[in-house]
Every structure is written in C-alpha cells, then in structure tokens.
Design goal:
The longest helix is centred in the middle third of the chain and has 36 residues, at 65-100. This protein has a single domain, classed as Four Helix Bundle (Hemerythrin (Met), subunit A), CATH 1.20.120. It is 70% helix and 0% strand. It has 188 residues and is an all-alpha fold.
C-alpha cells in the first residue's frame, strides 16, 4: 500500500501533467506570441512588424536617415533574437513532453516542475524582449512622430472597421495606443 505522501505526490504530478499537457497541446497562440487568449492578433503586436510599418511611413513621419537606419538594425536584431527565443521555447516544450510521457512513472516531480518553470521563464523572457524592443522604437521617435503614427493608425483602423460594419468606441486604437505608451479610450 502506498503512503499518503506518495499518493499525494502522485496526484499532484498527475494533475500538473494534465494541466500542462492541455496548455501545451492547445492551438491557441499565447500573448507572448503576439496573440490574445482567443488566438486573435490584435491588442499585442510584433515589434518586427511595427518597425516595418514605421519604416513604410518614413516620408509621412519625416524620419531621418539615422532613424531609419537604427530602426532597420533594431528590426533585424529583434528578428534574429526572436528566432533563437522561439527555438528555445520549442525545445523546452519538447523537454516537458518527454518528461510527461516517459515510461518510468517513478520520475521525480521536481524534474517536471523545474522544466515547466524553465519553459515559462523562456516565454516571459521572449515577451520582455518584445517589450524592450517597443521601448527602443519609441525612444527613436519624436513625440510629434509618435502622434502622427497614432493618428495614421487611428484613421486606418476607423476605415477598416467602417468597411466591415464594425464599431469600436476607441476607433480600434487600443493596441496601438498601448504600444505607443498612450492611454486607451477606456483609460482616458
């Protein structure tokens, strides 16, 4: 007969394994991947795409050559770093799966816990890197350029929503405003 401690540890490990497996096997993209909880790509943006949009609006924003060069460099650096971080996350997922599905049921639950913690630390690092890149982009732009960018985005979102027959009280600016460090309509 198993002791109560051994049964409790086995139950905890099983519950943790089921929770993690369900999370890892779901197709929904996480917020760290630039998607909200339902897998939609609005509200949280990819800095690489944001930089591309800023560069695309170079003339309208009156970007200097120095700003454009720094933005291109920042975008390439981010993309390369993102590939490495995504690979690290995928490898950590494989490690978790390997531990969860090993034939040896006597595996120490501490190994599973530490591997799961490593996976979520990697995801957090990836999200923090995105945030820092957005901060760097904002730091390269003047307040006037940020305002122009917000206005351009608001006009674009408004026309897109009108074409679709949708209505947003904030003109669809919630994600862009948050990205640019401005309060959303709900926060104003």
């Amino acid at each position: 007969m198993k002791s109560k401690t051994a049964r409790a540890a086995a139950f905890f490990t099983l519950a943790l394994a089921l929770a993690v497996t369900g999370n890892l096997l779901s197709d929904a993209k996480s917020w760290a991947d630039g998607h909200d909880q339902e897998g939609h790509g609005h509200g949280r943006r990819d800095p690489g795409k944001f930089i591309w949009h800023v560069l695309k609006a170079k003339e309208a924003l009156d970007l200097s050559e120095e700003q454009a060069t720094k933005l291109r460099t920042l975008g390439l650096t981010f993309k390369k770093d993102r590939v490495k971080r995504d690979a690290d996350v995928e490898l950590a997922k494989i490690d978790v799966h390997q531990l969860l599905y090993q034939q040896d049921q006597q595996k120490d639950s501490g190994d599973v816990e530490s591997t799961i913690r490593k996976l979520y630390a990697l995801k957090a690092d990836r999200r923090i890197a995105s945030f820092k890149t957005f901060q760097e982009v904002r730091g390269l732009l003047t307040p006037e350029q940020l305002k122009k960018l917000r206005d351009m985005h608001g006009q674009k979102q408004c026309s897109l929503h009108q074409k679709r027959g949708e209505s947003h009280g904030d003109n669809g600016q919630h994600g862009e405003r948050a990205m640019l460090g401005q309060p959303t309509a709900a926060q104003q």
